[in-house]
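Trying the structure run again after the queue cleared.
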Amino acid sequence: MDNSICQVYEDKIQSLEEEIKLLAEKYEDSQQESTFFSDEEILMSKKSFEREFWRESQGCESPSDLKAQLESLETDLSFLMKFTGIQFTSHFKKTMEKTRNRTVQKHRLSGNCHSLSFQLEFQLLEMQNKENVSVVVSDLSITMESGEDSGVSKFVSSIEEHGNLLAFFRSLSSYAEWYEHRRCTFLHFK
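Done. Tokens:
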């Protein structure tokens, strides 16, 4: 082995040994500090910490309030699914990058609207400054079961280019409703 490589490894070993020594000293110091307190004081401190943690994690809301809020959200979601015909079957989210004022997430949604199925993949860039939060959709990819309808293909390409999810869902709802009507009508004549 080359001497320079050996030296690099020896330096790394020495660095790790020093770090172990510092951590061992910190551990010993913390053990000595804990012996200064009685068992009762430690238990009281632990219980106080648990109560404080419980309050923070619960957000000062009772379980009945949370249950009522969940039921209200489920009712709203059910109404929206009946109203628009859009039903999501799966959602996958992965955080790609997160800093103090910038977050990039990759989303994959699939679902159906009436009898048409769809799948979306996109990245969501969320930037926060002192006054507001801005959100930008990028890398939008839409896969739809639309048959050979060239109008839908052009529409989907336009939506992907502009990254306009709201326009997609608005148009999907009305298109899928009329697509279902046409399909039923043609089945009737067959």
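Residues 3-35 form the longest helix (33 residues). Worth checking whether this holds up in the mutant runs.
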